Amino acid sequence: MSNIINKYHHGDLKSALLNAAKRLIVENGIDALSLRSIATEVGVSHMAPYAHFKNKSELFKSVAADGFLNLSNTLQSIQINSNQPKDLVLLYGVAYIEFATSNPQLYKLMLSQTNPSQSNPVQSIEKKLISSNDKVLYEASRKTYLLLRDCFKLNESNERKINIQAQGAWAFVHGIASLLITGQIVIDKESSITEFLTTATQAIYH
């Protein structure tokens, strides 16, 4: 076993296991994900993943945290020369929906691993509510929301209004993403997610 694991540099095995987990989710769904299955996918001993994940629950949380970090990194990469929150929120919304609809099983897992009592973005962080195992997931799941808050801070100073605006925008794009994933709404081939979201928000504003 040691010879197999040693071919990975420090930290590389965990990354390889997480990448394998995401591939398996895409190919076979969440139910097929296990420590044994990712070990087989990577080509290491069935015991090797236990060096990084104590159990299946920790694996799920790590995969979810990795997904949230990928999503927030995608949003952070968006550049725009505008001080208008609605312009940046639109781009964030499009990127969020594209991520969710391109990774429906991963997106489902990400949401299933967040505990509302721990990840409510309005509540302050209380150490007694968050175990060390959940901290990485907690922080990762907050990043997209905090980006939205920073966006609305451009033209608003009232914290209560900023929270409401950010929550509303988050709920709006999450709802659209979820409906698209389940097939309850369909964007026709002649339209893009950008056009769909722009038209939808214009209808709300008016």
Please tell me the total number of domains. 2
- Tell me which oligomeric state these chains represent: single chain
Biggest sheet, in brief?
Answer: none
Mean pLDDT: 84
Fraction of residues in helix? 55-70%
Helix-strand pattern, N to C? HHHHHHHHHH
State the CATH superfamily name of the largest domain: Tetracycline Repressor, domain 2
Distance between the termini: 63 Å
Give the number of helices. Answer: 10
- Give the DSSP E fraction (strand runs of 2 or more residues): under 5%
CATH class of the largest domain: Mainly Alpha
Structural class: mainly alpha
**The CATH architecture of the largest domain:** Orthogonal Bundle
**Structural Rg:** 19 Å
Number of strands: 0
**Shape assignment:** globular
Low-confidence stretches: 1-6, 118-129
Brief descriptors of the model:
single chain; 206 residues; mainly alpha; Arc Repressor Mutant, subunit A; 10 helices; 67% helix; globular; disordered N terminus
